[in-house]
Amino acid sequence: MFKNQYPFDLLTDNEFIKITEGAVIRELKANEFIIHEEDNEETVELHFLISGLAKNILHRANGKQVSIRFYYPGDLIGMMIMLTSGEMRFSVQALENTKTICLNKANFMEVMTNNTNFSKVVLDGISNLMKSLYQEVKYKSSDTGDQNEKELYRKRVDTFMELPVFIQPSKSIEDAAKLLQHKKMEGLIVSEDQSKMVGMIGYSEILNAVMKNDLKSSVSNYMQEDIYSVADQDFIYEALSYLKHHPTVIIPVFHKSNVVGFLRQSSFFNIKDSVYFDTSYRISKSKTVNELKSLSPTYNKEFQQFIKQLIDEGTFGYEICELISSLNDRIHKQVIRIAEEEMVREGYGPPQINYCFIVMGSEGRKEQGFSTDQDNGLILSDYKHFKDATKIDLYFEKLSEKINFMLEECGFPLCTGGIMAKENKWRKPYSQWSADLKEWIVKIDAEEIRDFTIFTDFRPIYGDFSLAYSLRDELTNKIKNSLNLHQLLMKDTLRFRVPIQPFGRIIGSGKKRSLNLKKSAIMQIVNAVRIYSAKNGIEDANTINRLDQLANDERFHPRDAENAKMALHRLLTFRLSQNLIQLENQEPLTNEIIIQKLSKEEKRKLKEALSIARRLQQVIELSYNRNRVV
Fold this sequence. Notes:
flat, 4 domains, CBS-domain, Beta Polymerase, domain 2, alpha+beta, 4-stranded antiparallel beta sheet
């Protein structure tokens, strides 16, 4: 079938017979894996694509999948995966009904060794792509991959490093001690030319020489040669964690082969986010749910103290909530990895199809605090046409249950409304999501609108993000053009009135005069901004980003957008502060604050925030009454 196909026409008859010996034809359905990321490189098979279309997927460390290239008829599949030797994780997935010839890998590699013209063609075809992928691994393996994340979470080593202090290996231990004392350093870089490092010497090595009465000896006799180091463009997480457990050392920083700086504990004394980096690193290395639980915001005392410091420093409440949400994302991703590994150990194997885990509600908007439950779902690649569709159903039913219950163990309570991946309504193939979305928007009623508002703020955090992006496109277009849905969204946001009188008196409830920050004010702002964003086709789920885009598109006056941001900042900060007190006192987390316990200044700030929320609600109500169709 392909003897005359380039580059196989470069083979001799005997070589062609050798390559095709034992070859079999494979037929695959759309979305079926030709090669799975869990396959060992030793067992990866080589395929020649006869018909159909397939895509190569790189699995990033953060759980996000990146489509690298498509395979077309005549392409060879599997060589790139073999050449990376497991350093990068790839899958190859059929995008439509596909047919391949599975070749004898051992024979193929032998022919490549003997036929240089043939091997050059095969290798040249992927060399440029391989170079770019190695850059991806080298510089971005710790990156979150989310372009919208703040620079706060993307710091590199060169942001914190200090200039190195060198000493020549021929200098005496006494010289080294004097230099350490003069420079107030923990260690010195040993180098002949103040560029290439041959070792490092610190107080422990000098003390060793002192105990031997050997101060005149050369530095080279006592220096360390096996040294932990980092590159200037590495991300800072690993260095921070290393220094935490090795406080008396310095870490050399390299640019290529030259030492350009060093890190020590004092390098981070003025960096408020080092706790976040260290916690993130520890999450990525966690192997059990118990480890993750101790690192989650509701159980991690160190992280709670860090959040308190941010509040005291005046950090915007919505930025703190975004930081908490980002940490929760990392916990979710690690839970999914642990759940997948458990499925393999239990004999279910790895996932047979691509899927995307989405979060909704406050986590979807990146506005989570300490008091939160789960709102999540699964978008699956279409698989109902597979022969073993029932087996796939069972797999994802089991996997989603594991994920939801593991998250519960980590401090994320199960959703009382059942908006979770383990429920059939929130776990289905893409085509079913698409069909249900059309029907949902046409037939939605007041009872379902609350579930719908939670869903509209969905965001992908793990797996094949393209599934979520395609669904987001459909959702945005349908909401934008549905006047009926706009009216229902408006009606829903008017259910809870902002409890403030015309002259500014806050209306509390119950004997303690408490106020539910979420129902009484935060959701009024979130809902109003969501409605305006829906009407104007804005895809972003985050309230602050929505406000910025509404202002840029001249749908909101910039002053109104800033007022809404300030109100949200204050309300979220009140809730965070209240939750920190409750955590410290081991009390249940709530959205309630007692007005009488607030200071005069706090009451003033709360009144201003409530007034802005009420103004937004009034604008929605005027629009609702003017255009009422429901």
